[in-house]
Specification:
With about 170 residues, this protein is an alpha/beta fold. It has a single domain, classed as Rossmann fold (3-Layer(aba) Sandwich), CATH 3.40.50.300. The protein contains nine helices and five strands; from the N terminus they run βαβαααβαβαααβα. The protein has a five-stranded parallel sheet with strand order 2-3-1-4-5, with helices on both faces. Helix 1 packs across helix 9 and helix 3 crosses helix 4. The longest helix is centred in the C-terminal third of the chain and has 18 residues. The radius of gyration is 15 Å and the shape is globular. The N and C termini lie close together (about 5 Å). The protein binds shikimate-3-phosphate. The site of shikimate-3-phosphate has 11 residues, from loops.
């Protein structure tokens, strides 16, 4: 086994959670979503955590959580879009970048999914956040997948890579 875990990174709404769940099903692995872990730990939504405690507090939690989660091996882990920017992803993770264009993300997200994301509410700010972050996502990733198409079209790229390279 070359890597301990598979860690999915990418901008908000790029589909990391859906990809992670599908991959976990194909590969018979456990799926963990960092945002969901944080929400259950605090028994609060991401929106409320940002509103009541602030972004900095959330970033500290993210770093703690990814360290805690990666103590276990063999999992598919979806991160929040800001995690790789503000935290260090433990070594020995296979980092996969779910790469979708900003406009594709905006068009694809339902109103409900859009509303769950505090940093997506101001479109101009979100667009510049996107532009700031993509270089880091690309730099960190061992594998980048074009996620502008439907998940069924690109999921096999990730599955094949993992199986071919015997990474997990
Ligand atoms: C964030 C992304 C969100 C969530 C929080 C902050 C970000 O996760 O962690 O709202 O800074 O990009 P998703 O990438 O799942 O939307």
């Amino acid at each position: 086994m070359v890597y301990d875990n598979i860690v999915l990174i990418g901008f908000m709404g790029s589909g990391k959670t859906s990809v992670g769940k599908t991959l976990a099903r194909y590969l018979h692995k456990d799926f963990v979503d960092v945002d969901s872990v944080i929400e259950s730990k605090l028994n609060a939504s991401i929106n409320d955590i940002f509103k009541d405690r602030g972004e900095e507090y959330f970033r500290v939690l993210e770093q703690k959580c990814i360290i805690e989660i990666t103590q276990k091996k063999g999992q598919i882990i979806a991160t929040g879009g800001g995690l790789p920017i503000h935290s260090t992803i433990p070594e020995n993770s296979l980092i996969v970048y779910i790469d979708a264009d900003f406009d594709v993300i905006l068009n694809r997200l339902s109103q409900k999914e859009h509303a769950k994301r505090p940093l997506l509410q101001d479109e101009k700010r979100a667009r510049s956040l996107y532009a700031e972050r993509i270089a880091t996502y690309k730099e960190l990733a061992t594998l980048s997948v074009d996620a502008n198409q439907k998940i069924q079209i690109f999921i096999h790229v990730i599955v094949d890579f993992i199986l071919d390279q015997r990474v997990l």
